[in-house]
Amino acid sequence: MKISLFRRTISFGMRIMVVLIFAGNLSMGHSQENLESPWTYGIHKVIKPFAQTRACLLKAQTVTDLNKHFQRSWVDQYHALEVIASCHTVLEKDVGQNDTLTSEQLDLLSRADTDKDIRIVVHYIPENDMKHNDIKSFDFFISIDPDISAQFPGGSSALKQYLDESALAVVSTGSVKEHQLAAIKFIIDESGQIIEPLISSSSGNESIDQVMIDVVCGMPAWTPARYANGQTVPQEYVLTLGDMRSCVVNLLNIRTP
What we know:
Layout: H1 12-29, H2 32-35, E1 39-45, E2 52-53, H3 54-59, H4 63-66, E3 75-87, E4 90-96, H5 103-111, E5 118-126, E6 136-142, E7 144-145, H6 156-164, E8 181-188, E9 194-201, H7 206-217, E10 225-226, E11 232-233, E12 235-243, H8 248-252
Parallel strand pairs: 2-7
Antiparallel strand pairs: 1-12, 3-4, 3-5, 5-6, 8-9, 8-12, 10-11
């Protein structure tokens, strides 16, 4: 795989040497308290906002089941609930009268194309003390998550072993500042290949960033994510290195323990 993020002017071995020197210098400058900070590395699945599997979608009964941020307390009176989805590339819409999904809307959710987002629009009169209330709209998009996520060959234990045996193991502790997190996003495509590695959050050192990219690109092909019908789809992941207490975690859309 060709990487054009920056020129490779030094060999992989030389990059590791530079990283080791850099990490060692940083470690010597850290207090004991900082050395006990949760430095770590790992690979995490990127979670799309409002993403749900098809099975979860079909269990939904109300708008709140689809989007927990929607509050019934906002509403004085419902005007309409629209479900808009692509079915076999044709856009379809079904309209209900309140926040409860109708059987027709559930049927539309069951037939929606997996590669297209579903749009939900709630039209309502807000609950407040105003004498005149205009109809407001609350809309959001739902993506359909694959039923089975992409998997590293041999599973999570094999992935951990791969990372532990990589150059990451010698640069993790003290390699970035406290509350700093380096992150490389990448995609597992429909055939399980690693594509589009991208520096989402830099470590602040090009050699460390490049080692992280090499670790990503050096992975074997994964078993790709797929839906219940066998259709394989791309899925986004991120390799992190550093302090998982960083606010960068929230920007990555990943789920941590």
